[in-house]
Design a protein that fits this description.
Elements: H1 3-9, H2 21-32, E1 40-43, H3 47-63, E2 68-71, H4 74-83, E3 86-87, E4 97-100, E5 104-105, E6 111-112, H5 119-128, E7 132-135, E8 151-156, H6 160-168, E9 173-178, E10 194-201, H7 208-213, E11 218-221, E12 223-224, E13 230-232
Parallel strand pairs: 1-2, 1-4, 2-3, 4-7, 7-13
Antiparallel strand pairs: 5-6, 6-12, 8-10, 8-11, 9-10
Helix pairs in contact: 2-3, 3-4
């Protein structure tokens, strides 16, 4: 097998079984149907985004579309390459629209993202495009943000100990845990070199994001507030 074929193979499969797969595949096909030849599309992370990339690749193969994507994580980059999509490693001047998943979405369109660890690049792509599609099946809807998942917080590694203490002292925080890796010893290391803390809140008020970002060493959070988006579920 050539090196080119080996590179294509690494993004072919998702890393684990996909929960609610039929619903997510239906969402993926609906999003992929919107793509038009020549567009540059921001591709978010997570299993629904992965399935959307696969669906986009199917359209490229059957309809000979010219599509390119801006990936928010390595796994989506590899999946897009495997699907036959053109991948922008450097972010282009124009992103026509983007799609991404969410871990939780409440009635006020506030989201928690970042369970997959790609929260920094996901935020940058959402900021860089005017039209955002959030692909989130009904299981992601919550009445209280933070009721199912903690808020991920990315911290520069040298600041981890100090940041952990500061996070524990925030209002409504019930617990802070350094996210541990599964296939390596020690903590998860993000693609930008940070570590992740999972912060459990009993309530997430309007000032939570600003309080977290004021902590020295914090690079970003999984609280996504103030983004206008269209949701497909």
């Amino acid at each position: 097998m050539s090196d080119d074929h080996a590179a294509l193979d690494i993004g072919r499969d998702w890393c684990r079984d996909i929960a609610n797969r039929p619903a997510k595949e239906a969402i993926a096909k609906a999003v992929a149907a919107r793509a038009r030849s020549g567009e540059v599309i921001g591709a978010g992370s997570g299993s629904t985004s992965f399935l959307t990339v696969v669906a986009l690749g199917q359209r490229v193969r059957t309809e000979k579309l010219d599509l390119s994507v801006v990936p928010t994580s390595l796994e989506i980059q590899y999946a897009a390459e495997s699907a036959g999509l053109h991948v922008h490693i450097s972010v282009p001047a124009r992103i026509d629209w983007c799609f991404d998943g969410a871990d939780e979405v409440d009635a006020d369109q506030r989201m928690i993202k970042g369970r997959g660890g790609a929260l920094y690049r996901e935020r940058q792509v959402l900021l860089a495009t005017g039209h955002r599609i959030i692909v989130a099946d009904a299981s992601k809807s919550v009445t209280r943000l933070g009721s199912k998942h903690p808020v991920p917080v990315e911290v520069e590694a040298p600041w981890a100990r100090r940041a952990a203490h500061a996070l524990r002292d925030l209002p409504h925080v019930e617990g802070v845990a350094l996210r541990q890796a599964v296939a390596k010893d020690g903590p998860v290391i993000t693609e930008s070199g940070g570590v992740l803390f999972d912060v459990h809140f009993s309530a997430i008020d309007a000032d939570a994001q600003a309080r977290i970002m004021a902590i020295p060493g914090v690079r970003g959070t999984g609280l996504f507030v103030g983004f206008a988006f269209e949701r497909i579920e």
